[in-house]
Protein 1
Amino acid sequence: MRPLSQPGKNRKRSRYVLLVITLLTVTIITLDARGVPLLSSARDSSRDALAPVRGASRWVTTPFRNAWNGITGYDTLREENEKLRQQLGQDTANEMREASAQEELAKLKEQLNISFLGSTQSQVARVISGASSNFADFTVEIDKGSELGLAVGNPVVTKGGLVGRIVRVTKKRSVVQLITDPDFSVGVTVGPDQNQGVGHGTGNTRTFIVDRGIDLTDEVKPKDSVFAGGIENSIMPPDLFIPIGTVDKITPDEAARVQVLQVNYTVDFSRLDVVQVIKWIPAS
Amino acid sequence: MNAESTLVLRWSLLLVLAYVLQVGVLQDFRPFGVHPEIMLLLALCGGIIGGSSRGAIVGFFAGLLNDLQLNGSLGISALCFALVGFAAGVLEDSVIRSSRLISMAIATVGSAVGVLMYACLSQLLGTHSLSDPRLWLIITIVSLMNGVLCLAALPLCRWAEGFGLNSRAY
């Protein structure tokens, strides 16, 4: 059993240990902030090494997770069940399985036929997990990485429009910063006149804000489409018009002499499953 | 193998197992959208069982492992967990007669402090964790879950420290 109180010598040693550890962590934080490759490669390697462990654990725990989700999301589950009952009627279990497989196939096919991509090179990927942190970090992880040619800066889209861009790549996995992140800024073109502005996420999955570049005299109407891309030197491909959403509200900002646009996303972020990564990287 | 090597080996094993459990399993169990932070719990239990030095060392490594899977700056969890692990050891030492309830209270309060400290430091380094509208919910749920989970973690830490699973050292 450990003694209840430590002698003075031990206390001195404890403080010394704490001091050393504090200095060590501050050094690590500083080096990471400066982008030292050794630290980022250690992080990337650990992610790659853990990828199969995470996959296996998820597979093993699927029944428990389903049971848990059933308990914690009982109300949602009941609503969904009612909807399913209405939709499916007297379908048998086999038919349901087949429908599920068809749905899966349709999702994949859908992502292979995104009209706004044209002949741009892209890679289909699956969202494998949401945020690792309890705090909202506005990222998702996808199951493809640098071994398939993905790189930091690649835009990520669905048929609905822009999802985000890749901010970290390992050999087998990538982390996507979602457009909903308040720190995600992107050049946009608005409406049939293609007025150019800059918008950013707001932290929620409903609203995107365009608060720079749209002058008071520019003609913008509710329901106008907002696209990323179509702008030179942007973080999105200049030759593509990737939908973000439609204008919901327009508020004039007399002080800044601009119109602030509240935009509703066309992508449903609660149902991100299969995405397409555009193999294009910004010039800088 | 000497006692020191055995100690290092046992703690390393416990840290790796806890990490796999956190990353592979617990991240999907999210009551009210919040998952338990067992790496933080391990730092606290390390302090409670092994004293302030052990708490700081276990907290540092637990935090470093935790940082590897997050997208924030590397080292933030390491610093926070080391500090709360140290504080847990100091608190446990200041108690005249230790008990399971006191250990649970230290784990609960320590978890709350650890999460808040992480949010503050992350915010300083450019994230939005302190301004997260769910901040107090996250703190409450994590501390409550860790308070309960420490009943399972304490015997494991006792084993790692070499006291044996059934020892009464809290």
Protein 2
Amino acid sequence: MRRGLDLWMLAAALLAAGALGFPLSAGDLPLSWFDVPAAAVYVALFAALCAWLAGGRAQGLVLGAILSVAAVLGVAVALHLLYDAGAGGQARLGFWLFVFAIWAAVWRGIAAIGSFRSLNRGRQRGVDLLVPLAFGLWLVFLWEAVTVGFGVPQVLLPTPSMIAARFAGSLDILAADFNQTFVKAVISGYIMGCGSGFLVSILVDRVPFLKRGLLPLGNLVSALPIVGIAPIMVMWFGFDWQSKAAVVVIMTFFPMLVNTVSGLAAAGALERELMRSYGAGYWQTLFKLRLPAAMPFIFNALKINSTLALIGAIVAEFFGTPIVGMGFRISTEVGRMNVDMVWAEIVMAALAGSAFYGAMALCERGVTFWHPSYRQRH
Amino acid sequence: MTPLPLQSEPTAPPEPAAGDGRRVVQARDLTLTFQTADGPVYALSNIDLDIEQGDFVSFIGPSGCGKTTLLRAIADLEHLSGGTLTVNGVSPHQARLNRDYGYVFQAPALYPWRSIERNVTLPLEIMGVPRAERRERARTYLDLVNLAGFEKKFPWQLSGGMQQRASIARALCFDPALLLMDEPFGALDEIVRDHLNEQLLQLWSKTGKTVVFVTHSIPEAVFLSTKIVVMSPRPGRIIDVIPTDFPRDRNLDMRETPAFLEVAHRVREGLRAGHSYDD
Amino acid sequence: MTTDALAAPGSRPGWLSRLFAGRGGPIAVVVLAILTLWYAGAVYLNAPGMIDAFEREKRAWSTAELIEGTWSQDRPLLPAPHQVLVEMKKTILDKPITSKRSLVFHAWVTLSSTLLGFAIGTGLGIVLAVGIVHVRTLEKSLMPWIISSQTIPILAIAPMVVVVLGAIGLRGLVPKAIISTYLCFFPVTIGMVKGLRSPDLLQMDLMRTYNASRWQTFWKLRWPSSLPFLFTSLKVAVAISLVGAIVGELPTGAQAGLGARLLAGSYYGQTIQIWSALLTAAALAAAMVGLVGLTERFVLRRMGARP
């Protein structure tokens, strides 16, 4: 790291110092720094700290730790200004310059922590996790500050705190929707779709004729807007979860088929000849060589499908459901302009989707630990 | 330039002497042609060859001379276009189904998802050997190639030389009487290669197996072999068969002796002759 | 015992596989099989309704009549392929393009927002990827979020985006294009990050021996080696962009677009209309992916890739 003037810290110091020269909010009761002396003192201290650090006094994790504390306090002060001091709705330049000052400090802090290198794998992994986490938290604060500070109408974009409150307040509804959409439709459809795709791909692989005929079509179908069959499935299988599971089956079938077939062709020439030199039969070669070699491809399909399945089930619910389900809730609450409930449902979907994907990725790591993409990481 | 020198046994019967089991490989007038877009490629033409039990035979020649192709034909990994070939008195296809030979490739070709031990026991699993015996044999042969203690490692955690030794253990573990090796040490550096050559010789004299070995290194061929088959390209054919009569327990110092250099010289002459024929 | 030198252990190619050695034959057979299954499925699914209809009229019916009936219902559970084709001909060729009943009109509404979203999303994705490759902190903090955001069913937000933007007066093309943009910039970013990183150490070291600037390294090495990755992600992006536009049309109150046609068809039980909209969407997707594929082949061939 180059010693000398730290431009990000200098920017943070100047922004914080500059903030003190402008009013905090406009409106009927304009707010200036003189109304909130404690906050003004903190901002001044913050500016001084950043100016001191701009000389390169601290590096690496130490700098990161100092800036983390300073930023967390800064965020607390900013939230206090918004909610308690009444800057919300009509925040002015003084407030925003302070936010930008924290932003510069956060950015520098993330860079400082991100450059941390350790031979200790656990420590390195912890730091690698900390950086995006800090960045994500910062984005949530920024969202809160912008929506409250500018007084963005709730219909357009609710604040994170409203969404969190709504989420915590309607856990029973969310649980029912989760059960209907995820547990019933997604899981059953996913298992059936991936399972049948896998079995058909073994068959297709065995019959070269089918491989040449079905594979180009499978590739084509993977690019088609399959969610469009949702209204037809609703018509065939009724309003309940069965029709959503049917959509999920069709959406997950083709990625599995295409990936497994190309995975079965992935074993190398030498490895196959080895099997041949042992006089191994078809099934022995399949189970001892070709399926293990195909595992990275199969898991790729499982991961793609985990996202597709959730999308398929939610979109299919737009075409008709009983009065429960994540897609149903989203479309009806949008109609009633209850946007915070919609966002709570989206948070729910995001959590379910990431957890599903993460579970598949963990299984993948366990099964294909030997693959170069995992080996090189350490 | 004797075009096709044969073994000095004119009475060799076309039928293999299955009874005494001494003739391991026998080729008569063997031809192998690949059909390509640019017309036929004569990979092997008019090959006559006999390999006796306990022989260590090297195929040597420039790239494209068909030495690997000949080895693959013996292993039933290529199909002949003409002539006859028997392995242990039966067709190569039957010999493959009988699991008569162990094959070592240029690359280790270990399966990355199996531990070293489970890689070595792979052929045993396919042949239906019970689990206890598989582990026993893996231990024995990993010991033999000096890999004891590495059973639980995965291939990518081992160096190239260790991986190739593991693949040799894999070829040996079902105890085939014939070992086919296709430039097994070609990708390794010279120090490791010397070391493995010595180990291979010890193994050979300990077990009394028949080894067919493809190489393009003259010292390696002379050091290892009881019989050196010199080959030449376009069309792939045998230029010379050079017997050596060094004792079975050789060491690396032998490579400086006049007798060794003389054989090496003869091999080099043979290779050069094959080339001048080409020009 | 001598070897029969020519006895290949594998089976020799049969007459059928020789006849269909290429791809055309097998594809034709599979398509034919699908069509047959489709007709059979139409008979199976529509027969109960047809029998009811016959019995209501209290008239006797033969099997031939039944089969013919199942292939020509007004609102069948599964329309026969020729019914869908007739409907498509009627709505694509026979109606003037400006008519609200013309499928060409609806397809254009969907296509225009797809293409707009695709263009913006691709640009955004490339810019973001370039930033991530060159700015370490951006990579460390942003890349994990981009990857994990792929696991979120983003499409679920689509109706909300349309309705919310509609509430502040943004209607028509733009909200749908925003959804498409959002959907297609993720695959482009991830593909391009991979592509811009694809030059190996030797190639990068070569640039360093020339003392090439970042800018030069980018244009001479990183950008050309990323193009194959770019086209692969563009194919995904254009397909998902169309899906985004169609889903974005679902909650707009069924005015125009293929998604609106699907929704209207499902409200009124017009299965033939649903299927024709679906087939049009499929053809659109195939055409766009094919177009990207053609461009890819052209560009990569000019860059010396093997055909």
Protein 3
Amino acid sequence: MSVLIDGSTTFIIQGITGREAVNMTRECKDYGAKVVGGVTPGRKGRDVYGVPVYDTVRQITDQMRVDGAVVSVPPGFAKDAALEAIDAGIKLVVIVTERIPRGEVAEILEFAKLRGSRVIGPNCLGLISPGKSKMGGIGGTAEGTRKAFVAGSIGVMSRSGGMTTEICNTLSAAGLGISTAVSIGGDPIIGSTYAELMPLFEADSQTKAIVVYSEPGGPYEAQLAAYLTHRKSRLPVVAFMAGRFMDEMPGMRFGHAGTIVEGRADTSTEKIRLMQQAGITVAESIESIPSLIQERLSR
Amino acid sequence: MRFYEHEAKTLLGRQGLPLPKSGNAKTPEEAEQIAGQIAGTVVLKSQVLSGGRMKAGGIRFAGSPQEARREAGAILALAINGQRPRSVLVEAKAPVRKEFYAGVIYDALAKRPVLIFSDMGGIDIEQVAEQHPEHVARAHFSVLEPFSDYQAKNVVASLGITGNQLSRLTPILTRLVRLFLQYNLTLAEINPLCELEDGNFLCLDCHLDMEEEARDRHTRLLQELGVGREETRQARPPTPFEIRGAQVDALDNKGVAGHVIEFDGDLGLIIGAGGGSLTLLDAVRKHGGRPANYCEIGGNPSVRKACELTKLILSKPGVEKIAVMMNVVSNTRVDIMARGVIKGVIEAGYQPKDKITFFRIPGSWEDEGARILRKYGVEYGDRSVSMDEAARRAVVNMRGR
Amino acid sequence: MPMFIRVEVDPSVARRADLAKKLVEVCPVDIFAQNADQSLRIVEDNLDECVLCDLCIQACPAGTVKITKLYEQA
């Protein structure tokens, strides 16, 4: 099993003729993902590495089953692209685009909720179930992806796309491997939070433990802590907190748009305290994560 | 991006929100003139982005234009939390009967905006929420459905407010919500929102933040307000070094090599990507290193950009060496980064092996990158060297050689 | 001065306007440009930006475009 995607997942790429999307298309295809179509308005009839390009999402969903969509269009067009995918009945929408204003993200998420679609991102690299499929630029080239992501038993959720690869590489090298890794996005408001994805991992028999990459700013780590406090999960969770230095610099934005310390509750210190209280093991370095996982699993 | 109070009030005014008579003075003379036009007692308010103006002496009263001139002079000379005031806002002093609070923010958990209202205004809303939760009303609202007066009315009425207060407050809250949505704000706060002796309401102070990401959608507005492109409006203004960092990143649109933030250490950092930079800066500090800067590399920047960033960091006084480190990269290329950094070091007049304490970027084109580094005698760490270990070696090499 | 990459184009290619135009089109980092007489010009400033994509080599007759990695020389 896996979470959200598997070898049979079909998906489209919106904005497929863009510079980044062209690479992503080739990388996903090379990895074995079922990329069944792409959309760029006005480019119908072309193809990108063998993937046919259409003008509208409906032109694809009218003729075949489409499980997912990757939105890789400039920020000014991202809201429309996401709404189009949701309206066409696509149930998993991965938004890669950065710099979408929060109000528009809220619109997308409200519409997705109405229609029963799940959104991953924005500002993320997508998700991967090693050996089965990947949706988005996560891991880069198929070769690089195979190097860093070996199939295994650990579920990974991360606010940073790059650190998803770093952590998965570490877990793979240690022989633990990955069940599904989700780059959840670095924006202040995201479609699927750690706590919202936890039940999916709990329902996945392949997943034995969870690794979380977290940063200062925002309430999502506290939400995860509350989730684990109120509901005893079968999965041990190990978290890494980056950006501890930021506690000394409130109001300054580092890294992702969502990474800014605004109050007492969203400092790294407070988040670490909340997570530890909820039974999460907080790692001091990335390299120590595998042994902490082993230790939690052997308890 | 935070607006100065006088800018924020211009926006409130455009939305039809009630404001005291006022003028923005850049000099004591202008303050005197505005006070003369207003007639009566005026309030003079330092225009800084920092909070705590009252405590710091940045808000003063004046009974005459002459006094206004003197007080404005004092305010203009007074830095608050390291910030020099831009100007002084001169406002008619209003006879206040009661203070309220109204605010709109996004709730990241509900993933919707929320309207917050309190009948205990004039103090920090978080404090009110903690100590007097029964005096705070909240209502999330849809961004797809239209916002209408009744929603604002419900919020106000939920605190037991009726009569003239209810009918006056309702449209004010509705307009605040419209303002919040129209200008892509992330915070819109009127505090205090005052009821006057005569029953009218005025917005006496306010705080508006526009989302960074939305700035280019409001270029005309920002131009009208005189907000420069280079103004970051963060907790502190950018230093000249940071401004030059932004210029390096703007050299071309290939990838990112910027977001430079200055520290006072001796080890220059060329690090990435977003999360990787946070992780590495922590690791360097943990191992006793003193970072000279923060920065972010990502999205495969050009050789030119990596080169210029390297030169910029090496030019910073006190920087002795640099460390080049990233998480396992997917689209950034190791060889391109190696070229850029080495070129930068050489163009700055140094030998790469003397200046680069450690180079750890595993990932795409790593073999090619390693070949380049070998030629210049720079130590390369692949993915078998953890980020923590890379930071440790960078710090050790800083001292060792 | 380029530090990492050298590009040599055979004069027979450099003289031809059609091949020069093609090289300008295929290079993703603008290493090639055309002179006023349509002949090929190499933009020295951009040489180090070369991403080793080989598109220029594929665009011309075999052996006429040569890319040298200066860091691999003895």
